[in-house]
Amino acid sequence: MSTTLFRTIQPNQFTLLGTALFRRRRRSNFSVRCCGTQTTTTHEAKQPSQSRIAPKNHGSNKLDEILRDYEAVIGIETHVQLSTFTKAFCSCPNNYGSHPNTSICPVCMGLPGALPVLNSKVVEFGVRLGLALNCDLSLKSKFDRKQYFYPDLPKGYQISQFDIPIASGGYVDVDIPLEFGGGHRRFGITRVHMEEDAGKLLHSDTGDYSQVDLNRAGVPLLEIVSEPDMRSGIEAAEYASEMQRIVRYLGVSNGNMQEGSLRCDVNISIRPIGQAEFGTKVEIKNLNAFSAISRAIDFEISRQALLYNQGQADQIVSETRLWEEGAQKSVTMRKKEGLADYRYFPEPDLPEVILTQDYVDSIRSSLPELPEAKRRRYEAMGLGMQDVLFLANDVSVAEFFDAVIGKGAEVKLAANWIMSDIAAYLKNEDLSINDVKLTPQELAELIAAIKDGTISGKIGKQILFELLAKGGTVQGMIKAKDLVQITDPAEIEKMVLKVVSENPKQLEQYRNGRTKLEGYFAGQVMKMSKGKANPGLLNKILLEKLNAKD
Amino acid sequence: MATRALLAVISSSPNRCFISTRRIKNQASSAFSTSPSLHFQIQSRKTHRIAPSFSSDTNSSALQPPDVSRLAETARISLTPAEIEECGPKIRQVIDWFGQLQKVDVNSVEPAIRAEMEGGNLREDAPETFENRDGIRDSIPSFEGTYLKVPKVLNKE
Ligand SMILES: [Zn+2]
């Protein structure tokens, strides 16, 4: 398994070869795993000539050269859909995938006279996320109306927080995976605010109409606005994936990008290195995978750098672009002509949101260990960065690992079992670690039984797969199946002698120099012992007998 | 600031030049008085006392006259020249009233971020299905199958 940018226990991965257009600096290729359908994409052949912004005479070296002169400035707005039972301002159920237009009421339909009442969970989740992102909380914040007219917004305005968000001025720490140069980065968080989602629009391909499902209208969101602190697609993708980890660790959202529970809009500009002022900002939307964030940004950096380089910087305009995953490029969605006038004003139907210090403190003390703290703790335990990133990536995996070492298992061994055989099993069976019957207790037992020589590593693997699929205990299985390792040299010697005597032809070949046949003999003895022979003893005794001058 | 807020109120009410929020509420409570599930939300509230939300820029007592055409445009309503003519002075009156308010010396008053209301009225996160959903759907003129049908609009802003 290649090392990946997005370590996840989810199955499926695809490898993406960096193209000339997307290649930046030292990076020549990268592989990304994301939870989606399995795709293997190679863009090498079709990319550069197809792209309208990469003239044919630009070799990749030329592009690399151009890119060296520019710096990208990237900020991200992340919308997190909260996993509350009800909507933000009414008691309609908040269920993804309900029959269209069934989770509606006068409040979320914007009928006259219906008044919003804030869901207490939304405040709680806002505080949790704000604290997790190291923000200052506003003990008094308020809601505002943001006016815009679109069919997915029945009221004609969105209830949001404008000038006084619930949280602001924080930061988040991420570890860049080794294959992308490694290192630790801190990105600023400008603000976190509470707001409501709009409905969902389905555009018909044929007709001149769209269909609206208002189940999502009024569903609570937290919007996280980052400082423009990121400089590459990789950094941005790592930031976004840290947001996903954090909301999942906190339990405020399922963070599912495909379902739209975690949506990232990227703002990006480039400037010649050394220039203080920012370039023209372009927004990219429709990024529903971390890999898409990374590639859309690298595409945009290249596009803008080439325009600069060709003296066409004036063609970089303030606009919103849509990432097209199929074509691996972005296209203009709309130009921004003047700033949109949302005519914010204080929401007259909602009181201010007041937090007491006691309330904030009680939430602070109930926060789980967050991904960054976990990574630092795993690092301090002596695990390598690759192990650290893998284990801390998925909160369920991390909890499982913590429970296993809590039962006294050796750290490195526990990490190895989880990252190799267990991860492979989960991938093959398309399961999450919470779905398997193996308990942390039994994995710890298994590791101990192998370590103290009760069973061989090979038997250990057999037991592991039984435990994963059927449950049970290590001790029970060892007894029931008589799996205790044979460590009696006399018993092993008996089996070795038998195998040697039964294979005279191979013995002769071995003694004539085909020493590779040792493996054959070892295999035969192991087979005879039903995998129970201690491998060290077996090899030692076998070599003695094979090399004996009788 | 208060003026801006007012303008937004005005322009967000598409059907008339000017509606007070009080009138919206009154209409509303009669329209939904038969719906028990709404009662918990229609609460009596203290009269809103508007305090300056932000550091007040009191030097703007000379307020700009309203650009009614632009207001209408941002609220996506069409007004005839006659209606613009008619609305202009009314809106002007309201703005002048805010101009008077802005003259009040509030330097000694602690800024409130919101008009004062009974705070702490948060809701439990317990789902409740609104009974008369059919009524809502039936009242949508373009409801087809399970969806609302609207003209195709791709360019969201
Ligand atoms: Zn509702």
Automatic annotation (TrEMBL), chain A:
GO terms for molecular function: asparaginyl-tRNA synthase (glutamine-hydrolyzing) activity; ATP binding; glutaminyl-tRNA synthase (glutamine-hydrolyzing) activity. Gene3D superfamilies: 1.10.10.410. Keywords: ATP-binding, Chloroplast, Ligase, Mitochondrion, Nucleotide-binding, Plastid, Protein biosynthesis. It is found in: Mitochondrion; Plastid, Chloroplast. Subunit of the heterotrimeric GatCAB amidotransferase (AdT) complex, composed of A, B and C subunits. It comes from Arabis nemorensis. This is Glutamyl-tRNA(Gln) amidotransferase subunit B, chloroplastic/mitochondrial. Its EC number is 6.3.5.-. Residues 399-546 form the Asn/Gln amidotransferase domain. Pfam families: GatB_N, GatB_Yqey. GO terms for cellular component: chloroplast; glutamyl-tRNA(Gln) amidotransferase complex; mitochondrion. InterPro entries: Asn/Gln-tRNA_amidoTrfase_suB/E, Asn/Gln-tRNA_Trfase_suB/E_cat, Asn/Gln_amidotransferase, Asn/Gln_tRNA_amidoTrase-B-like, GatB, GatB_Yqey_C_2, Gln-tRNA_amidoTrfase_suB_CS, Gln_synth/guanido_kin_cat_dom. SUPFAM superfamilies: GatB/YqeY motif, Glutamine synthetase/guanido kinase. HAMAP family: GatB. Belongs to the GatB/GatE family. GatB subfamily. It comes from the Eukaryota. The lineage of its organism: Eukaryota, Viridiplantae, Streptophyta, Embryophyta, Tracheophyta. It catalyses: L-glutamyl-tRNA(Gln) + L-glutamine + ATP + H2O = L-glutaminyl-tRNA(Gln) + L-glutamate + ADP + phosphate + H(+); L-aspartyl-tRNA(Asn) + L-glutamine + ATP + H2O = L-asparaginyl-tRNA(Asn) + L-glutamate + ADP + phosphate + 2 H(+). NCBIfam families: gatB, PRK05477.1-2, PRK05477.1-4. GO terms for biological process: glutaminyl-tRNAGln biosynthesis via transamidation; mitochondrial translation; oxoacid metabolic process. Allows the formation of correctly charged Gln-tRNA(Gln) through the transamidation of misacylated Glu-tRNA(Gln) in chloroplasts and mitochondria. The reaction takes place in the presence of glutamine and ATP through an activated gamma-phospho-Glu-tRNA(Gln).
UniProtKB/TrEMBL annotation, chain B:
It comes from the Eukaryota. It is found in: Mitochondrion; Plastid, Chloroplast. It holds the Pfam family GatC. GO terms for biological process: glutaminyl-tRNAGln biosynthesis via transamidation; mitochondrial translation; regulation of translational fidelity. Keywords: ATP-binding, Chloroplast, Ligase, Mitochondrion, Nucleotide-binding, Plastid, Protein biosynthesis. One of its GO terms (molecular function) is glutaminyl-tRNA synthase (glutamine-hydrolyzing) activity. It catalyses: L-glutamyl-tRNA(Gln) + L-glutamine + ATP + H2O = L-glutaminyl-tRNA(Gln) + L-glutamate + ADP + phosphate + H(+). GO terms for cellular component: chloroplast; glutamyl-tRNA(Gln) amidotransferase complex; mitochondrion. NCBIfam families: gatC. Allows the formation of correctly charged Gln-tRNA(Gln) through the transamidation of misacylated Glu-tRNA(Gln) in chloroplasts and mitochondria. The reaction takes place in the presence of glutamine and ATP through an activated gamma-phospho-Glu-tRNA(Gln). Belongs to the GatC family. This is Glutamyl-tRNA(Gln) amidotransferase subunit C, chloroplastic/mitochondrial. It comes from Arabis nemorensis.
